[in-house]
Automatic annotation (TrEMBL):
Pfam families: SBP_bac_3. Belongs to the bacterial solute-binding protein 3 family. Residues 25-255 form the Solute-binding protein family 3/N-terminal domain. SUPFAM superfamilies: Periplasmic binding protein-like II (SSF53850). This is Amino acid ABC transporter substrate-binding protein. Keywords: Signal, Transport. InterPro entries: Bact_solute-bind_prot3, Solute-binding_3/MltF_N.
Length: 331
């Protein structure tokens, strides 16, 4: 970091972990409500891929996946909530960009979902491409990468549009369903969730096939605390590594008892002590999988075949299956 450059929200080394242990909870910023990623159920429990990451972090650090304080954040408040120290980690469908990574005092720990910006419209004959939306009224959420991507794409293709921008996702959705705008643009995953869970007549709508941007999403922490950054990073990788090794919440106890495979033994806490390098105990990765599951289990129940959304794994498949999910070796 250049001399004299002060970035907002920079933490002091080791302070976040100390604070988490003193509080007895991981304070995690999540979406105000998006099925598949972070949403409260009827009994008040948070579910979703991002919520699962928060629980995995709590399981690793505090021994209990339920020791999480979930803080709903909007697109406008999520960054400042992390910068100010209101939350310990941000796990909220947040795109990892150069500007956010270098100028806001944040550090992304990895990618838990590969997304892209798409468009959902009411079905009509012949409408099959974004390039046919010249002159359309398009709803977007403010405070996201969506607005800039939209402007750049339409300008590059000599297309005109009218943006209708709202601070709250619920207002954007209402404007779209009430006909105030003809198109809703956002992350492809968000539109798939919208179509599957929030539209009264989902068959009347379609998501156009093009993606106009790449949107790597993942958790972020404040820059300046290497210890907390490493714990947050390896918590995400542990969920992926478990799936790579074939370790799940259902078989982890049997695999721990067997102890035949050195990589598995190391992962479940029956081999080399890998926790000491993070200031954690020997079974931190065991608890993540036992209490939360591996990455594939989390994806399937929240977004995949076991969910209402039923998204295909796509890029989120393991690298061994043609996807992009890969963990550095845990050794």
């Amino acid at each position: 970091m250049a001399a004299g450059l002060a970035l907002p929200g920079v933490a002091h080394a080791g302070k976040v972990l100390d604070g988490v242990k003193q509080k007895g909870v991981v304070t995690c910023g999540v979406h105000t409500g998006r099925a598949g990623f972070a949403l409260t159920s009827a009994d008040g429990k948070w579910t979703g891929l991002d919520a699962d990451y928060c629980r995995a972090l709590a399981a690793a650090v505090l021994g209990d996946a339920e020791k999480v304080k979930f803080v709903p954040t909007s697109a406008q408040t999520r960054i400042t909530a992390l910068q100010s120290g209101e939350i310990d980690v941000l796990s909220r469908n947040t795109t990892w960009t150069y500007t956010r990574d270098t100028s806001l005092g944040l550090a992304w720990v990895g990618i838990n979902f590969y997304d892209g910006q798409a468009f959902i419209v009411k079905k009509r004959p012949g409408l099959k491409s974004v390039k046919q939306l010249n002159g359309a009224t398009i709803c977007v959420d403010s405070g996201t990468t969506t607005e800039k991507n939209l402007a750049e794409y339409f300008r590059a293709h000599n297309l005109k549009y009218k943006a209708v921008v709202f601070d709250q996702h619920e207002a954007t959705l209402h404007a779209f369903t009430s006909g105030r705008c003809q198109v809703f643009s956002g992350d492809s995953s968000a539109l798939a969730v919208l179509k599957a869970t929030q539209l009264k007549n989902p068959d009347d709508y379609e998501i156009l096939p093009e993606l106009i941007s790449k949107e790597p999403l993942g958790p972020a922490v404040r820059r300046g605390d290497d210890e907390w950054f490493a714990i947050a990073r390896w918590t995400l990788y542990a969920m992926v590594e478990a799936e790579e090794l074939g370790i799940s919440s259902k078989n982890i106890d049997k695999l721990k008892a067997d102890g035949d495979n050195p990589a598995i033994a190391r992962f479940v806490g029956a081999g080399d002590d890998m926790g000491k390098f993070l200031g954690l105990d020997k079974e931190w990765t065991y608890r993540i999988v036992k209490q939360v599951g591996n990455y594939g289990e989390s994806f399937d129940r929240n977004l995949g075949a076991q969910s209402l959304v039923k998204l295909p794994r796509g890029y989120m498949k393991l690298w061994t299956d043609g996807g992009l999910m890969m963990s550095p070796p845990l050794r």
